[in-house]
Amino acid sequence: MGFISEFREFINKGNVVDLAVAVILGGAFQKIIDSLVNDMIMPVIATIGDMENIEELKFGPFTYGKFIAASINFLLIALVLFFMIKIMNRTRERIKK
Question: In angstroms, what CA-CA distances link 95 with 4, 82, 83?
Answer without folding.
Answer: 40, 20, 18
